[in-house]
Specification:
2 domains, two-stranded antiparallel ribbon, single chain, 208 residues, 6 helices, 61% helix, mainly alpha
């Protein structure tokens, strides 16, 4: 992700209205040299196989854009203005693409953080005072409590029954284990409830 942010910094740093972030004091180049560098850089950006290659191509385009804008012939040259417009169009496309990529990454990070927080909450609620779910505990009188595998069952259901539909994976369904009553609270369609009932009956039968 660090390379993506670096690319975004290069492209998003260009000021509004198409002005370059930095100007160049280099001597003016010939039109053919400008054209050759522009085509090479545009091709390199389009065919880049890695983020590093793409970053180098974007940097080359940004520098070439600055050279065109500061060329003393720019204001009177339609050729140079046309090259500038082509480069700016590509940089704008790259900027928009990177903004979408960064937005998707931020959303993915939020979903992952939410999933982890939910998993921690479930573990705490099913563990009974911080003890791991499923651990046998002894209460007053020496009577052992049956191990509680409720959270393990929830994890199994989310992995095997319509896995893409649960909220931990960004879906609309939710399932929560209520440890004090050893009950599952499920919010889903009637069809999934039916399938879930069949699985639970099979689990109970296997445990007898």
């Amino acid at each position: 992700m660090g390379t993506t942010i670096l690319l975004a910094a290069i492209v998003l740093a260009a000021p509004p209205g198409g002005e370059p972030a930095n100007s160049s004091e280099a001597a003016p180049k010939g039109y053919h040299e400008y054209s050759r560098e522009m085509k090479t850089s545009l091709r390199a950006e389009a065919k880049a196989k890695t983020q590093l290659d793409r970053g180098n191509a974007i940097l080359a385009l940004t520098n070439l854009y600055a050279q065109l804008r500061t060329d003393e012939r720019f204001e009177s040259s339609e050729v140079l203005q046309s090259m500038k417009n082509k480069i700016w169009a590509r940089l704008t496309h790259v900027r928009d693409d990177l903004e979408r990529t960064l937005a998707r990454q931020r959303e993915a990070e939020k979903r992952e953080a939410k999933r982890k927080e939910k998993s921690r909450s479930r573990a705490n609620s099913s563990g009974g005072g911080g003890k791991p779910a499923g651990e046998a505990r002894v209460v007053r009188g020496g009577r052992a409590i049956i191990p509680d595998f409720g959270q393990a069952l929830v994890d199994l259901i989310e992995r095997t029954i319509a896995p893409g539909k649960w909220d931990t994976n960004g879906g609309p369904f939710s399932i929560v284990y209520f440890a004090p009553r050893r009950a599952l609270v499920v919010r889903a369609t009637g069809e999934l409830h039916h399938n879930l009932n069949g699985v639970l009956k099979a689990v109970r039968a296997a445990g007898r």
